[in-house]
Amino acid sequence: MSGLFQDFEPGGKPGSKRGRRWRRLNRVPLRMVLPNMVTLLALCSGLTAIRLALEGRLELAMMAILLAAFLDALDGRLARMLKGTSRFGAELDSLTDFVNFGVAPALILYQSSLSAIDNLGWIAALLYAICAGLRLARFNAALDVEGPDHKADFFVGVPAPAGALLALLPMYFALLGGNWLTGSPLLVAAYIVVIGLLMVSSLPTFSGKRLGARLPSDSVLPLMVAMAAGTALLVAFTWHVLIGLSFVYLAALPLGVWYARKLDAKAKKTISALTDAPDE
């Protein structure tokens, strides 16, 4: 099979000066492939959501989007845990996120509500999907840019998975019997454009990447109980829980801005103190 397919990491191992020799003498470890397999499962789920939406099975389409969001959260943590991160994986993840959290939600909302206002609805769906693509492109461009240590705790703008779950808020109400979705397509259009703008904004939002990296031993069991209870609530009252989480996330946006500015001010104060310190 050698030479039939492209290399997993074109040019050899990232950072290595022995690219071709590395490809001949080494094999890609399974730990680097597993996260990408999870990413591909997420892509399958997102594409299935589009099919289900086009067939009018909107509740199943929503479930497929939720599964894609779960798998998206899983693949990143799996890659970091297995030390299997790669540039290939980062690019694949972004392309998958664009389909799952940019294209699929836009089509679901257009199919269910925005088509009632014809071109205006399509323009709103386009703007949301374009904002998701721009947000992911900016994220990729910033992968190699280093910043202060506390910046790792924040995203710039609302991340695409969170943006998708926020954009689908009208669907949650509709699935509970609300008429916001079908009764106010103009309101839905304006709402998803605002969510799209939040994704490409410069607002700092909590990333949660380092959350739970180390836990006190006496908090492990309570955390497991809380996760089990949260999962049970999500399964039993899916749309109620998602509505609550959406409003909590929106309410937390100003808190993220305030906390990020506080950390920036603290970092600047520390740098200023070190700069002004007299030489010994």
Q: In CATH, what is the homologous superfamily? A: CDP-alcohol phosphotransferase transmembrane (TM) domain
Distance between the termini: 64 Å
Proportion of residues in helical segments: over 70%
Radius of gyration: 21 Å
Integer count of domains: 1
Blueprint of the fold:
Elements: H1 19-25, H2 30-54, H3 58-82, H4 87-112, H5 118-141, E1 154-156, H6 160-167, H7 169-175, H8 180-183, H9 185-199, E2 204-206, H10 220-236, H11 238-276
Helix pairs in contact: 2-3, 2-4, 3-4, 4-5, 4-6, 5-9, 6-9, 7-11, 10-11
Tell me about this structure.
The mean pLDDT is 81. The protein is an all-alpha fold. The protein is globular and about 60 Å long. It contains eleven helices and two strands; from the N terminus they run αααααβααααβαα. α6 packs antiparallel against α9. It has a two-stranded antiparallel ribbon. The protein has a single domain, classed as Four Helix Bundle (Hemerythrin (Met), subunit A) (Up-down Bundle), CATH 1.20.120.
Summarize the structure.
The chain is an all-alpha fold and 280 residues long.
Features:
280 residues, mainly alpha, Four Helix Bundle (Hemerythrin (Met), subunit A), single chain
